[in-house]
């Protein structure tokens, strides 16, 4: 605002061009930086990632209406809005115990059988979309968690893929 008002004080033919240039600088530089950083990170990893949009998630989750789904906790609000599933945890003040169950399940080490941390969630399904970088809830652990296994496309034997959508989401059924 200060720079724009300074441009208004100058009464000449270049004042409008200066204003447009300042606006472009403020608006476009962060956008271009983010795009360059995103392109560099995806190319450096050598792997392309899906959009992970939840906009069209309802058809994938329609068959599991009223079932409990273990999903990334930050996606809970949109899942509850767009579908009729229940989630394990949420980032709401009254959902701390559910959040802790969700966190423990993702941090568990997958084995031949469903872990106690997953059992305690009462989830029937697991929903995941691979994304660049490690999930913050497991970032402090070795890459041997349930999250890492699913993110790498190697689900444990007690999870069976039952659905997939164009945005990259995979729905797994927990088969004890």
Note down, in words, how this protein is organized:
It contains 7 helices and 5 strands, in the order αααβαβααβαββ. The protein has 176 residues and is an alpha/beta fold. The chain has a 5-stranded mixed beta sheet. Helix 1 packs antiparallel against helix 2. The longest helix has 31 residues. The model has no long low-confidence stretch (mean pLDDT 86).
Short description:
With 176 residues, the protein is of the alpha/beta class.
Task: Identify the notable features of this structure and list them briefly.
five-stranded mixed sheet; 176 residues; 11% strand; single chain; 7 helices; 41% helix; alpha/beta
Low-confidence stretches: none
Kindly name the structural category: alpha/beta
Helix proportion: 40-55%
Strand order of the largest sheet: 2-1-3-5-4
Count of DSSP helices?
7
Tell me about the biggest sheet? 5 strands, mixed
> Compute the gyration radius: what is it?
22 Å
The sequence of SSEs as H and E is HHHEHEHHEHEE
Identify the overall geometry. elongated
First-residue to last-residue Cα separation = 61 Å
Question: Would you count the extended β strands for me?
Answer: 5
The proportion of residues in beta strands is 5-15%
Overall pLDDT confidence: 86
